[in-house]
Specification:
The chain is an alpha/beta fold. The longest helix has 18 residues. The protein has a 7-stranded mixed beta sheet with strand order 9-8-7-10-11-15-12, sandwiched between helices. A 4-stranded antiparallel beta sheet has the order 2-1-6-5, with no helix packed on it. Helix 2 packs antiparallel against helix 4. Helix content is 30%, strand content 23%. It starts with 6 loop residues before the first strand and ends in an 8-residue tail after the last helix. Helix 5 links the parallel strand 8 and strand 9.
């Protein structure tokens, strides 16, 4: 049952859904009449409460999806469909230290806090003061963030690995890097992470992804992946089940990689077909060009 101070969802027969924080001194006014706060705390989740006009409202408990989608935003939205895979690929969980830059409006920070548990910790970095403050307010509104440290810091000077007021020598287990030019921060990322740590990036354009992949080739990163997640809802009508006419298609590209040294012995043992040899020759040519050398790799 809800308590005063809790967040609740009230869904109307009109299809409207709103999140409210229950206040013992404030009833909730709707287009269909007033909902008394005392009546709401006397009801159970999953039941209906009625307004003064006898209109029923469904009482629901907000889930992580509702909290993330319900925050106040001043930055580009990040969708739960992308958040889920990122959390899985980074291994977000109890006892893990996760780094995030930048915080933005704090939507993904809420998810990281939720999944990190009581013994995990999240360090989130944001250069812009207004976003830093907004992320803090959104974490407090959602009722999470006890395992989050928010840093108002520009990571162009590093993640503060040796700063006693920032990371204080504690390297992260994984990193989510959501900045416009992530290739400029790869050195700082390596310095702030444990060996073998995974990194995830979120980028909106193909040009950014291409620039990032090229930069990853020049440093010890391996197992690089690029993907996008498309979600197509279906109309829930028994006997006439079909896809909806609209869908949440491309929102951003997700790039995943891992800090990993690469040896010549490893490369020599990789089985390569004709296509793979051509791809490797092109990679070697890019590396030679970046070093200002001639490529002597033979296909």
């Amino acid at each position: 049952m809800p308590q005063f101070g809790d967040l609740v969802i009230l869904a109307s027969p009109r299809g409207k859904r709103h999140i409210y924080r229950l206040d013992p001194h404030q009833d909730i006014h709707t287009q269909d009449g007033v909902l008394r706060a005392a009546d709401i705390v006397a009801a159970e989740f999953g039941t209906e409460v009625r307004t003064a006009k006898n209109v029923p409202f469904r009482l629901e408990q907000p889930q992580l999806y509702d909290l993330v989608m319900g925050i106040k935003r001043q930055t580009q939205i990040m969708y739960p469909k992308d958040m889920g895979l990122i959390c899985f690929k980074l291994g977000v969980g109890n006892g893990r230290t996760i780094l995030e830059a930048g915080s933005g409006s704090g939507g993904f920070t809420i998810a990281l806090s939720w999944f990190s548990g009581p013994n995990g910790h999240v360090h989130t970095f944001e250069a812009r003061e207004e976003f830093h403050k907004l992320a803090r307010r959104n974490l407090e509104w959602a009722g999470v963030g006890q395992n989050v440290t928010l840093h108002h810091r520009d990571i162009s000077s590093g993640f503060g690995i040796d700063d006693p007021e920032v990371l204080n020598g504690q390297k992260g287990d994984a990193l989510f890097l959501d900045v416009r030019t992530p290739w400029e921060y790869l050195g700082h990322a390596r310095a702030a992470l444990k060996p073998g740590a995974p990194i995830a990036f979120l980028l909106p354009t193909v040009e950014q992804v291409s620039e990032l992949i090229h930069a990853l080739e020049l440093e010890p990163f391996e197992e690089t992946e690029v993907c996008e997640i498309l979600v197509r809802p279906w109309k829930v009508v028994p006997g006439r089940l079909r896809p909806n006419d609209r869908m949440a298609a491309h929102t951003a590209f997700l790039v995943f990689t891992r800090i990993q040294e690469r040896s010549a012995d490893w490369d020599a043992l990789i089985p390569l077909g004709t296509r793979e040899r051509k791809q490797e020759a092109a990679r070697q040519a890019r590396l030679a060009e970046a070093r200002g050398e001639e490529c002597d790799y033979e296909v």
